[in-house]
Amino acid sequence: MDVKEKVALKHMTAEEYLKNYNKIKSTVSTQGIEILPFNLELEKQSNTYRFYYPKEVDKSDQDMKWVSVMLGENGKVIDGIMYTGCADIPTIKAMIQATNITWTNELDQLIGSIGNEDFSKTLEIEKVKLSVKGNSKNIKVMIDSMKLDPPQSL
């Protein structure tokens, strides 16, 4: 068991996140499961940071996927991550697991409900807001760090 305390998403740098993600990627690859390769890159045209995007954009490609990352403090700490495109369930699951939130049955149900029908669901777990909207052909998954604690009383 790792004695070092896990870093919560609200304090996690892109470098720490990628280390977690790549550890998951190497574990699942031994089980024959392939997930997208993530690297932090600046997409110059839109001036956005991406973990993954197609190098060649083909609007007719039904399997296109993008993973954008929003950076806050000093351009290092993650504010949010967004997956857009055709549902790649193993990548989406790894993307969520790399945030260090505790995996629950509720998350399994959320991932399991991605199908052909449109749906929209939001969960809040351990100061992470997880929003899933769309269907297996076109889905948007947003992972947002909830930086501020809600007031205890007014």
Describe how the helices and strands are arranged.
Blueprint: H1 14-29, E1 41-43, E2 48-52, E3 65-71, E4 78-85, H2 89-97, H3 105-112, E5 119-125, E6 128-135, E7 138-145
Describe this structure in words.
The protein is α+β, with helices and mostly antiparallel strands and 154 residues long. The protein has one domain. Helices cover 21% and strands 30% of the residues. It is built from three helices and seven strands, in the order αββββααβββ. The chain has helices spanning 14-29, 89-97, 105-112; strands at 41-43, 48-52, 65-71, 78-85, 119-125, 128-135, 138-145. A seven-stranded antiparallel beta sheet has the order 1-2-3-4-7-6-5, with no helix packed on it. The longest helix has 16 residues, at 14-29. The radius of gyration is 16 Å and the shape is globular. The mean pLDDT is 86.
Name a few traits of the molecule.
7 strands, alpha+beta, seven-stranded antiparallel β-sheet, 154 residues
- Which overall shape is indicated by the principal axes computed on the Cα atoms? globular
Task: Enumerate how many helices there are, as a single number.
Answer: 3
- Mind telling me the C-alpha Rg? 16 Å
Q: Separation of termini?
A: 41 Å
Structural class: alpha+beta
Please provide the ordered H/E string of secondary-structure elements. Answer: HEEEEHHEEE
Low-confidence parts: none
Record the strand order, biggest sheet: 1-2-3-4-7-6-5
Number of domains: 1
Main pleated sheet: 7 strands, antiparallel
Report mean pLDDT, rounded to a whole number. Answer: 86
Helix fraction, binned, reads: 10-25%
Total strands: the figure is 7
Beta-strand residue percentage:
25-35%
